[in-house]
Amino acid sequence: MESKLRKIDVDGLRIGMYVSQLDRSWLETPFLFQGFFIRNTGEIEELRRYCDYVEIDIEESDAKLMDSLAPEASASSSTIYAATSERSASIWQRLLRFLSGKKSDAPTQCLPGEFYKDTASTADELVVAKSVHSGALEQLMNVLDSIRRGDTIAMPDLEVVTGAMVDSVLRNSTAMSLLVRMQEKGDYTSSHSLSSSIWSLVFGRHLGLDRESLAAVGLGGLLLDVGKTKLPDQLLNKKGTLTDVERAHMNTHVELGLELIRQAGSVDSRVLDMVATHHERFDGSGYPRGWKGNQIPVFGRIGGIVDSYSAMTSDRPYANAMSSYDVMREFKALSDKHYQAEMVEQFIQAIGIFPAGTLVELNTGEIGVVLKEHQATRLQPEVAVILDADKQPKGNYKVIDLRNQGEPSPTVWIERGIEPGVYNIDPSEFFL
Question: 88-92, 376-380, 381-385: which has the minimum mean pLDDT?
Answer without folding.
Answer: 88-92
